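Fold Annotation — chain and its backbone
Encoding — discrete vocabulary of local shapes
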Amino acid sequence: QVQLVESGEGLVQAGGSLTLSCSASGRTFSVYDMGWFRQAPGKEREFVAAISWSGGSTYYADAVKGRFTISRDNAKNTVFLQMNSLTPEDTAVYYCVAHFHRNTDYNPKNVHEYDYWGQGTQVTVSS
């Protein structure tokens, strides 16, 4: 069992920056691929970014590529999402997710790949 706790929620103006953190506890953090999804009001949950268990590979949704950066610190059991140049379209609840790394195909953009989810943290971008 893995527990994920997000932090860093906030209200920022368009063009601003915010960093989300996700702390994991339970099983060994370094065996999990980690990611972020988000869900805006009235919309489906969507992929934002993911990082492999080693940190060697990162993946981004087209909507955030070049503006968001995902990283991890395995020594601190934490994954980060640095968000720059925020727009009102980035307003959503952001969820941290964990996928137990297996030697099989892994599609980081598939919501069903993930074994554990955090409770979500609100990001609001004002225009």
Q: What stands out?
A: The chain has a mean pLDDT of 95. The CA atoms of residues 61 and 103 lie 23 Å apart. The chain has no helices and eleven strands. The first strand starts at residue 2 and ends at 7.
